[in-house]
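Hey, can you fold this?
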Amino acid sequence: MTPSNERCPECGHTDTTWWEDTGETTCSNCHFVVNTTYEPPYDPDRTRNLGKPGRQVLDRAVLLEYSMSPRLGRLQNQQKRVPMVELVRKEIEASPFPSVVILLALQVWRCIPTKLFSASRADTSIDSYGLDENATSDEKRARREDRARWQAWGVLAIVDQARPIGWRHLAEIRGVEADKCLRFADRLQKALGYDADGIRTRVMVNDIIDVPRPTMQSQLEDEQERLLTWLGNKLQLPHTDKMGLCNRAWKILDAWGIPSMPLYQPLGNKSSAQLSEMAVSMALLDLSYAPDVVRHMQESFPKQGMVQIRKDIIARKFTPWPSMSSGPSGNPASVDDDFSSLGGGSSV
């Protein structure tokens, strides 16, 4: 114990004492700790942002200022690397879908080879990889997290292809780049399978989530449900309006002889997604929805080979177009009328 002349900031007394065993200087009057020579407890977070780009460590002189050896500084500046497959799983669990959808997505996730999540570079076909030559560790980590998010939504898109879950509308709300997710989904879906006795067996997403194998009828139903779900969420449509659109779309397909036997050869070459979009677009116009609504729906579901058809539908020049009029007078008929006997109807 050594007396000192330091002034106490609490009571103003100059009678202070330095304790050799603790390294503290206390006020002899109020026992306030005026000063200490001991270091504060070690805080590992204080050096979290001190590293240079990549795996470079701080200079020796800088490390000495923090009483840290170069080896300890290097370890502190390297964060644990989480595997890409685990990042994708966390993104799936954090998605805004109901728990039953997340469980289905995790079933699909388990049937994808682990290495594919790290090796796939589907996003580079749309734009550059997005990293400079001297990218920092934070930039690399942010890039991995973005790619994990796209792949997670790609897995959810695979589920949506077998069972519509309103994937695209939620992707738009969350600001997810749908094109990148769908490119990942295409590659991930082709790798679905399981290993048995060293042999890789391919499976379909329908087998994984226990949904019947697709038929032409079920594919048309799923595609229409996907479009109508997007329209219902986007326009806040009541259930009765969605059912009216669904009934009108099916009457158009029935008038075309689909799915049994197309009455028009060009329609026989179209996929279920293209036929469903054509029918729903025409149903929207028949039921007096604005052309901008049809155009927005078409832009949200990009498809190949539909540029001219979409223009003709919006301009009401597409043939065949089943008529809604009940006779020569042109009076509108009920949406429940049977159009199957019209053989495609007259063009408008």
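Oh, and this one too while you're at it.
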Amino acid sequence: MHLAGHRRGGRSPESYPQSPAVGILAALPPLSRQRFIDGDTTQTGLNGASSSPFKTIAQFMASRTNVSANDASANYVGWVTPSITGGYTENVAFPAYASTQLRADSQGFGPGTGITGNVTWANIAGAFAGSLAVSGLHNIGVIGTITLTDDASAPSSLFIISADEIGDSNIAVTGLVDATTTQKLANIACLNTIFPNGITAGTGADNANVSIVNCILSGNTLSGRSIQSFDSIISVSAISARITAAFLDTLFGESSAPVLTLSNGTLPVLFDGVSWQSFSEAGGSRPGGDTGAAVIVIGGFDGGSVPGADLLGTGNTDVSLNGTGATVGYRGAFSGNHYSVDGQTGDGSATLKLGGGEKNGDTICITKRDFAAQKYDVKDNAGNIIATIASGQQGFVVARFLTGPNDWVFDRGGSLGT
């Protein structure tokens, strides 16, 4: 075995490996598109290298160039390290037309990587524009507001607010998130974040969509061109969208009485059963009328009852899940998956129409609530009687849509005589 030290024959001694000379590490250049930010640093070089990090987020933002469309499109990432001085007390401005992200590898809650100040992305008059600009915050809370603006020349853009933790450990944006004047912002995407003062993206044709996943949102308003909510809690008084909205595994604040509106609604609002039940129990409402917001619950009546307008007591009434093809007075917000009739003065019937957004297995229910001395028929789209509630009896019929016959078929029913 040869030991490091003297070689045989009296030759020159071998050298042990040596650490770099003092100052070498401090002189190392930063990575090409990633920088480090350390609010507690004592370094003076401040070039964003791990050995010479920026002290403020503003210094990082100032280092972000925009010298070509490729430069603007490629992500430029600032890693924010925890600061024992309570995080970062400064206003933060993202650069125009460029993809820039602030990320922290530590847990998002607590003061270490949070921003105390307002965050803005004025996506206006950038030097170069790529095909897409993506900016946002990850594991970084904000004690302040977030305001997003742009101009007609801005690239299509996304803003992402996210955290790794879920449940009580979410990050929070304590002030309003406001994007009401944007024209090119496609989406505000939020994950594991608390918003105690709401999100307003506007309901104009060029406003942003809003997506929230495992978020807690309260305050006065949630608005966007469209709204998608998954596994979230919403406690706002006004929910408004331009086109449509979807709520899956979403709970609504008790007695928050949210009013849901679609300013130019062409598609129904989608709920799963849990979300619709919670919306109803919270006192949620939607504007009425043939042009109001139709509601589709996954599974139809079996997923959650959506009452439509009461059926005409005599003659035939055409109905569908979202009002498409229905008789006037049973469209839009007058539509549903559960229709009832009482006070009949003659025989009546309901025809279950197609084209109302029905999916294979969806159900619709027709109920005769009184003991009127008239019968009530339920017909499929082709006009065939699939069930009858006899005269002098209360009863119900549940029909199921099947793609095989491409029509509504009898699923179950019952009646009760006097």
